[in-house]
Amino acid sequence: MLPHVNTRNTARDMDVIRGALGEKKISYFGYSYGTYLGTVYTQMFPGRTDRMVLDGAIDPRKYGPRLLQEAVGENERALADWATWAAARNGTYGLGRTRAQVLATVDRIIRASARGPLTVGTAPDTFRLDDTHIPFILLAGVDSDTDTSRAALGEQISVLAKAAAGLPTRLSPRFAETLRLATTGEQSPHGSVQSSIICGDVAAPRDPEVYRRDIERSRAAYPRFGALTNNINPCAFWDRPREEPTQVKQDAEVLIVSATGDPRTPHKGAVALHGLLPSSRLVTLEGANRHAVYGLYENACIDSKVNHYLATGKLPARDQTCSK
Asked: What family is it from (predicted)?
């Protein structure tokens, strides 16, 4: 089955469903990878879409197994912004009084975990974390700049700082869940499906030396996320894709939504997709480090513009901008 698990076949399945329902057109909403699937559908079945919203959009020319390489800078900046937030709350988290001090604490944790795994938590939720795990925890923690998300990361880094100092630690249920995701196969179905699709869509380099070289090149500029975003992944060992990646050659009337500091699918990808689809409109959320905005980030400006489009089917006359 695996050679046939890919985006183009998913798009074909979508069109089979459309036909079975007797509909001439479908309406579609996609977040993140869903923006790529939606884009592919417009190219394979032009003219068969009604209302289409692509939120957290991917540049289809950059889509592939090494997609996170495109977001390494955004993640470093999102972490730095979080460090400023945490520094203002040093009394709560004890990570440092300035951005630089908080980032220095993060770096100490990474160095300590490289010397030997950190033991965190108490039985039955006890985990041993090395320097391959800590960047993943950071990446997961900066996907949104809400106070709730930032507080969760603050609590997690405080725990890791204690562990790095050899002190006992206790885990919140949320942090324990994150660590089970990072260190066990508990949520493998989610990651495995995502890997299957992306590996079936676009080939990855097979030579491990390519990844080692890219990791070493990235360390100076991106000390916390360079290795993670350039590392080898299952696609290096996958069968070659059965089809070539979809080329965007057909215009489509879609509404693209993006935050300027998106740490998963960078804003530049949304701008690029907008350029490939001249009839599209781009709604930009300025100043937010957030992946997937509509209905999730509680920004009234974004929500109202998307709601108006979904209700009327009419794209804005021009691109729109909202403030955080």
From this structure: Belongs to the peptidase S33 family.
Give the pLDDT band (50/70/90) at residue 3.
confident
Whether the CB-CB separation of 304 and 280 falls below 8 Å is answered with no
Long-range contacts of 118-125 (CB under 8 A, 24+ apart): 118/160, 118/163, 118/164, 119/163, 120/159, 120/160, 120/163, 120/169, 120/171, 120/179, 121/169, 121/170, 121/171, 121/176, 121/179, 122/168, 122/169, 122/170, 122/171, 125/171, 125/176, 125/179
Which amino acids are annotated catalytic?
32, 262, 291
Can you give the pLDDT at residue 186?
A: 85
The span from the CA of 208 to the CA of 300, in Å, is 46
Token pair 């691109």: residue: 319
pLDDT, tens only, 138-184: 999 999 999 999 999 999 999 999 999 999 999 999 999 999 989 99
* Distance separating alpha carbons of residues 84 and 100, to the nearest angstrom: 8
Instruction: Kindly report the three-state secondary structure assignment for every residue of 82-128.
Output: HHHHHHCCHHHHCCCCCHHHHHHHHHHHHHHHHHCCEEEEECCEEEE
Can you read off the two tokens belonging to residue 96? 């440092």
Q: What angle do CA 261, 265, 268 make, to 5 degrees?
A: 65
Terminal-to-terminal C-alpha distance of the chain? 44
Listed residue (60, 56, 106) closest to 263, CA to CA:
56
User: Read out DSSP for 272-285?
Assistant: HHHHHSTT-EEEEE
Q: Whole-structure pTM over 0.70, yes or no?
A: yes
Domains and CATH numbers, the chain: 2-63+245-323 (3.40.50.1820), 64-243 (no CATH)
